[in-house]
Design brief:
By secondary structure, the chain is an all-alpha fold. The protein is built from 15 helices and no strands.
Length: about 375
């Protein structure tokens, strides 16, 4: 039988920092769907601060790290933190282990199904691809749940086992054409995709990323359990920030032996991005729950409370519909300033509409959850 944590978590206090962290992540994600970041990368803005920002809001083409490469790890990590709180609340209400497990399994399956279904909407045909965040979460959520009642050191050991196992498999895989671990479309992850779906991702993403990035969700659970402990806020922040800084340093140090590639989630990337996740949570906790800067954070929380809805809406093509709705007005009013500036304003207007949709749900206390 798995050992139980020495300190049972308490969920009497709501950690608004988690709502803030999730809301910020989702707000930035829906901004991408409006094509705003793409417009900022336009050659016409080369050499400007806007172009530099736009570049950071784009995934690195292969080996390297940009800010946008951290958004998916943030989401995987946040789900782990939320899982710790959710399970603790269910146990506090007296829900049995079997009931909690049933809910977790169903949720993992639904996430996997929704992630797969999104890939079928675009081409209008059945395809078996699992590279997006929902499909990946369907796997990492289940792994983290079945490990979360074990001792912290056991959870940590499993998380690094997934990272190391992936690194080893990529390096020793022998199938011709897929035996180059760090070459796009010629590695083990690409072979798995060909085996599952018969096609490769246009961006060199691989479905096997769910295995090494399970570490992010596991670390999220551990961070959530730590936040629910009886330690002082100072100690909570110190540990999260200390481990975060160590993770970032270790990840960049690992680039000496393993390139930092987000698209196949190499060991250096998973460790470094995990460190940034911990630092972001520590900052959010300090800002929102310790310093109490909460009123203005509601703007972001509104999006985070319906993260599943807005993600599905934007990923299924909803943003293009919103853009067509606002474009006649934005271009009619500001089209004279130029095509690029008009496109940027159109993206900002679409972004505002997407936020307003979440606000409408928020005001009516409608939460779309699994």
């Amino acid at each position: 039988m798995a050992a139980q944590p020495a300190v049972l978590p308490s969920v009497k206090e709501r950690f608004l920092s988690l709502d803030f962290f999730r809301g910020l992540t989702m707000f930035l994600l829906i901004g991408e769907s409006t094509l705003l970041y793409e417009h900022l990368r336009d050659p016409g803005l080369a050499g400007t601060i806007l172009h530099a920002i736009g570049t950071q809001f784009d995934h690195h083409p292969w080996a390297g790290l940009r800010f946008w490469d951290l958004v998916q790890p943030f989401f995987m990590f946040i789900v782990g933190v939320a899982l710790a709180f959710s399970v603790a609340k269910r146990e506090e209400r007296g829900e049995s282990r079997a009931e909690t497990t049933r809910h977790a399994v169903v949720r993992a399956f639904v996430l996997l199904f929704l992630g797969w279904a999104l890939y079928c909407i675009g081409p209008g045909r059945i395809t078996f691809r699992f590279q997006n965040v929902l499909a990946q979460l369907g796997v990492t959520y289940a792994i983290a749940y079945f490990l979360m009642r074990r001792r912290p050191r056991t959870q940590i050991a499993w998380s690094f086992a997934f990272i190391i196992l992936t690194e080893v498999i990529y390096r020793v895989f022998w199938v011709p054409g897929y035996d180059q671990p760090f070459v796009p479309d010629h590695n083990f992850g690409s072979w798995v995709d060909m085996l599952i779906s018969g096609e490769l991702s246009s961006g060199h993403w691989v479905a096997f990323n769910a295995i090494p990035t399970a570490a992010h969700t596991i670390w999220g659970v551990l961070a959530g359990q730590w936040l629910m402990s009886g330690r002082t806020p100072r100690k909570k922040i110190a540990l999260l920030a200390g481990l975060g800084a160590a993770g970032v340093a270790a990840g960049f140090a690992l680039t000496a032996v393993s390139p930092m590639i987000k698209r196949i989630c190499t060991s250096s990337f998973v460790v470094a991005s995990g460190g940034f996740c911990l630092l972001a949570l520590a900052f959010s906790y300090w800002l929102i729950d310790v310093r109490k800067f909460r009123k203005w954070a509601v703007f972001l929380n509104i999006v985070g409370m319906n993260s599943l809805f807005i993600y599905l809406f934007t990923e299924s093509g909803g943003t293009s519909w919103v853009t067509r709705l606002v474009q006649p007005f934005t271009m009619g009013l500001l089209g004279w300033t130029g095509a690029l500036s008009g496109a940027i304003v159109t993206s900002l207007a679409a972004w505002a509409v997407l936020w307003s949709m979440c606000y409408w749900l928020y005001r009516r206390k409608i939460l779309i959850r699994i």
